[in-house]
Amino acid sequence: MRYSVLLLLFCSAPAAGQGPWRFTPAAEAHRTGTFADRRLDESSGVAPSRRYRGVLWTHNDGPTPLLFATDTTGAALGIVRVRTDVEDWEDAALGPCGRATCLYLADTGDNRERRRSVRIHRFPEPDPVKARSGTVAAAQVLEVSYPDAPHDVEAMWVDPNGDVQLVSKGRRSEIRQFRVPAGAWRAGRAVAQPLALVPIDATRRLERFVTGAAISPDARLVALRTYGDIYFFERGRNGALRLPPSPLACRLDGIDIQGEGVGWLDAERLVLTSERAIRRSGTVSVVRCALPPAPSSSAAVVRNPS
């Protein structure tokens, strides 16, 4: 979602007084490129491929069903036209779908929180070589509604068992996590299950809105990205987020003006993508953050929503 850049800069003061978090600067943070394909001006989600070394999959915020292949330099490596109807794509993730690995795309944006239902799209991960000359993918669609009311959701990841996890942005209410079981694809429709209230206070603070999520390669940690920071959680039962014994958040310190996408390049580094904002093109950055140590029995589970 594109906001006034002036408003974003005004709201980007250091986070303070928001519960258990210890904020640390990124150990490494550098911009690695800008998107060569100028059509990619609102990168909203990013999914690093595990199958094709160096390839990143990303997409624009909004209704255009195009998936872009790129890398950390922002090179234009190809385009996939997705055969599906889209209202507002917000995040991308790779995850299992039967015996294959699929790209999942979250058509879950709802700025006014009025949509009766949202959609998850998925299709087998394309071959980036074929994407160089343009290729088409037919998507399977899952219709999802929420048990309470509509939510604006820009963050999604897929658990190793195929469950889709969604986290609301926090625009008008507490940040919430929802689970969509893997088996829901058989019916094509599901009511998302509420799992947790997420302890990030986004009240009147634009830089704390949750704009992306990613699960680590070993599936131990989940990174939730906001405009200003990255928060690290452990995964509990059914994929529920839980606080590590020493909760850590990584400050991004303005590495990009309007960043939304986040993905794990490897066990230690994350890639970030940004909308164009006032620049000629969106940006790609790589960061290395302090991570919570291995999980222990003392980790506190995030409280369930009432």
Helices and strands, with pairings:
Elements: H1 5-10, E1 22-25, E2 28-34, E3 43-48, E4 56-60, E5 66-70, E6 78-83, E7 91-97, E8 100-107, E9 118-124, H2 128-131, E10 135-138, E11 140-145, E12 153-158, E13 164-168, E14 176-180, E15 189-191, E16 193-197, E17 210-215, E18 221-226, E19 229-235, E20 241-243, E21 248-251, E22 259-264, E23 269-274, E24 283-288, E25 300-301
Parallel strand pairs: 1-21, 6-10, 11-15
Antiparallel strand pairs: 2-24, 3-4, 4-5, 5-6, 7-8, 8-9, 9-11, 12-13, 13-14, 14-16, 17-18, 18-19, 19-20, 19-21, 20-25, 22-23, 23-24
Characterization of this structure:
It is a single chain. This protein is mostly beta strands. The protein has a single domain, classed as Neuraminidase (6 Propeller). Helix content is 3%, strand content 44%. The chain has two helices and 25 strands. The chain has helices at residues 5-10, 128-131; strands at 22-25, 28-34, 43-48, 56-60, 66-70, 78-83, 91-97, 100-107, 118-124, 135-138, 140-145, 153-158, 164-168, 176-180, 189-191, 193-197, 210-215, 221-226, 229-235, 241-243, 248-251, 259-264, 269-274, 283-288, 300-301. The strands form five sheets. Strands 1, 17, 18, 19, 20, 21 and 25 form a seven-stranded mixed sheet that branches. The two termini are 29 Å apart.
